[in-house]
Amino acid sequence: MLHDALQRLASEYAFQRAKPFAKSVFGNFVRHDIAMEAKRQISFLPYDLKVKSSVGAGNWASVPWLGFFDPLITESATMGFYVVYLINPQTRRIYLSMNQGTTAVYRELGESRGLKSLERTAVLMTERIVNFAKQFDRDPIDLGSQDSLPKGYMAGHAFGREYESENLNQELFYNDLEKMLAAYSSLIDKGGTTPAEVMLEESGTHEIEESRKYILSRRIERAPNVRLPVLKKRGATCEACGLDPIKTYGYKGVLKNTPLDVHHAKPIFHLAEGESKRYKIPDDFIVLCPTCHRVIHKQNDPSDLAELKRSISNRFMPGR
Fold it and tell me: What pTM does this model have?
C-alpha cells in the first residue's frame, strides 16, 4: 500500500542516505516501487497523471519526494505546479502539498527573488481554489533543511496535510490524496498560476469564465502528449485551407515542430469544482495553419470546421 511505502521512506531515509548512492537497493525501491504503487493507487481516478518518485540525481537529495504531474502543466518537478509528498528525514514527517517547480523560478529570478515569487504564487493558487484549500492545512511546512531546493519547496507550498509516519491515519491519508488531486484538476481548469489579467488579455474577452476555457484549450493543444499524436493521426496539412508546409515551404523538419497548430475543437461548456477535463485523440482536434487557427477562435462556434471552410471559400471564390 502507498501509505506503507511512504512510511518506510520516512523512517529509513536518514539511515539509507549514509550509504553509497550508486546502485542503492533502497533508491531503486523509492524510484520504482513507490512510483508503481502510487500509479496503482490513483488508477481508478479520472486523471491522466505522470508519477515520479525521487531520492536525487547522482547524489542523495536533502528531501525525497513523490510527485503527481498533469502533462498539461508539467512532467517535471522543476517547473509548473503539481501535487507532491515531501519527507522531512529528521522528524520523519510526511507532507502532502500543492506545490511548485523551484528550479525554473530560480533560473529566471535567482534564489532570493525566486523564493518571494514562489510565496506569492502559492497565495494565488490557494485563493483560486479556496473551497478546496480550506479542507487542508495552510500552515508552513518544515522540511528540516536550508538547502536551496527544500527552501523552494517550503516557499512554494500552497496548502496540504502533515502526517506523522509512526501514527498515520490511513482513511485520512487516502481521502486527502483523492481530494488533493481533485483540487489539482480544479486549479488547472481555473487557469493555474496565470494571473487573471493575463488570461483576459490572451483570450481577448472580458469574461473570466470564458478566459479560463480559452487558456485550458490552449494548454490542451500545446501538451506534448497531445500535439504529436494528433499530427500523426490527422496528418500535417491544414484541414481548412489545405496548406501543406512540405509543398508550400519545403519544410523538412521533424513532425512535432511542423508550422501547424493543433486546435482543440471540443467545446468546454462549464468547469465545475473538481471536474476533470477529458479529450479524445484525434476526434476532438483539428489541424490548422496559424491563420486559420486565429480565425476559427473568432467564430461563434470555434469547433465548426465547416463554417471556417465556407468563410475561406466565400473570401477567395465570391462567385460560388
Answer: 0.82
